[in-house]
Amino acid sequence: MSHRENVEHIVEQRGYGPRAERHSIVLDYIKTNYRIENVLDIGSGYGEFLEVIDQEFDGVVKYSLDRESELLRTTKRFADVHSVQADAKRLPFKSESFDLVTALGIIEHVENPTQFVREVHRVSSGQAVFLTPNIGRPNRLIAAMLDKSVNEFEGHKQGWDYHLLVKFLESNGWIVDDIEIRYVDFPLYRRFPRLGRFLSYKVLPRFFKNAGTELFAFCSKADA
Questions:
Q1: CA distance 28 to 44
Q2: pTM attached to this predicted model
Q3: For residue range 109-127, what is the model confidence (pLDDT) as tens digits?
Q4: Do the strands 124-133 and 174-182 form a parallel or antiparallel pair, or are they unpaired?
Q5: Per the database entry, which stretches of residues form a coiled coil (predicted)?
């Protein structure tokens, strides 16, 4: 699929499916718990999350950071943002520049996660949100025992379950205010979105808390 076709696909799918569900979970927490005047979204991709911020918060200054210049150009189609092309391990911002830093599906891809979360800590003046797949989910554990790979995790440099992620973030200066484990990307979403949402929010987390597909870590700086 070409870059243009990717863009058109994202435009058509905005507001639907697992990606939109992830953004909704993060947005709900931000609206309830944070007061923000600016936000940095690391690895913004096509800018869908910043579009959600743009729609829900008046006057918030939005920064998009990505390594790919084509993605940054596309971001401007979705939201009024300041686009910055840079590597996430060396963020080109002054310390404590942002009320909130979001890294949704990024930490598992970086070579040096310790350096990455410390850079996020440096440029944040208060809060951060990290989203990553949960390697504690049953199919991942079974695959590991059988010495098999799971396609979803191929190419990921690191992986965390609930306890590993909390310990890792706290050892790098963060207070984990809340961590949610949600069932986000499973086939029911594609055919029965309302049923999928009900199961994700009400049923599966209640009975299988530690087996969710993704971890949402909502953090504040220990020294803030």
A1: 19
A2: 0.78
A3: 888 999 999 999 999 999 9
A4: unpaired
A5: none
